[in-house]
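Hi all, long-time lurker, first post. I run a small reading group and we've been trying to get comfortable going from sequence to structure in the token notation. Rather than ask abstract questions, I figured I'd post a concrete chain and ask someone more experienced to write out its structure so we can walk through it together at our next meeting. Sequence below, copied exactly:
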Amino acid sequence: MTKVNKVVLAYSGGLDTSVILKWLEEQYDCEIVTFTADIGQGEEVEPARRKAESLGVKEIYIEDLTEDFVSHYVFPMFRANTVYEGEYLLGTSIARPLIAKRLVEIAIETGADAISHGATGKGNDQVRFELGAYALKPDIQIIAPWREWNLSSRQTLLDYAAKHNIAIEQKQGKKSPYSMDANLLHISYEGGVLEDPWSSPEDDMWRWTCSPEKAPDKPVSIEIEFNKGDPVAIDGKPLSPATLLAELNRIGGENGVGRADIVENRYVGMKSRGCYETPGGTILLKAHRAIESITLDREVGKLKDELMPKYAASIYNGYWWSPERRMMQQMIDASQEPVNGSVRLALYKGNVMVCGRKSESDNLFDEAIATFEDDEGAYNQKDAEGFIKLNALRLRIADRERSSGDN
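-- Answer (accepted) --
Happy to help. Here is the structure in token form:
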């Protein structure tokens, strides 16, 4: 075991990371620095400070990263219209590179030898945290307790906590049977009945969205304004990135928007079933594609759509800090220069419908050409004949060759 003097631990204050904190001290005889990130998970993070202090931690970092998270991770991802395997809006995946970055930066600031996290050996998060950390600081040492210790169940963690006098706050009320992860973009659910892909999620599982059946009986109309591909205002009111996403979450949730039930392919090799609520992201994806439809050149849009699956896999698999993701991001960001304007949407019982789109400065939709009425010579319809015949040439040649081969 390599000698470690100081470790920066990604710390939530819950059972797992509180046990990890004590276990690191015991196993590595080292000093611990805790880092707790507020990325909009909806729970107060200050209790983590008191918990860390009670465990003897001297250096405690608690940071509100919500604006950084949305501005520099969520919005760049949505410029690409990013969806993993056709359905997943990557809510958990996109948060990990930011946390990895801060863990490394704090390690450098505090002179720590290593970082540590509470991700298990079965999941994707261990890959995301560690690939990010190694990309940013190649010589960093990483300690992943779930791959080292023999504490394999919640009960063994509770027993360890009791043995070492680690206070574990029991939340009042019924305990959720699901493993959940939340940030300002989404909330995810795994485990419990969801481990059987044939079982339906229980109605009371969902936290952010009302059931579409119980959503309002009248559509709710909203208008989103975009500047260079990023949303900047709702209904004419300018909002900061985090505030805007939170408002879309609220409106979408009230109208039953954003639920997904997915079986995805984890990077570590297994299939995993999870349910997700991403109300704001679902609205944003629909709106962004709508504004691109009138502002983006056809071939640029096609190239973006071809890049998107590779870009999505880079994020899902933990390669946010890779050279290929950075290269794709430069291309995507360059494409967004003309993506300016507004989109009007109607939200109704889980659906997001585009009702209008406009751009004052970058509109490629020419009504004079597209009209079914008299275009006053803007488009010569006779030109289409030559266009069609040239594009049909290879088809006609191929059919002639087939026909001659049949004789």
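A couple of things your group might point at:
The longest strand covers residues 31-38.
The domain at 179-296+338-358 is CATH 3.90.1260.10 (Argininosuccinate synthetase, chain A, domain 2).
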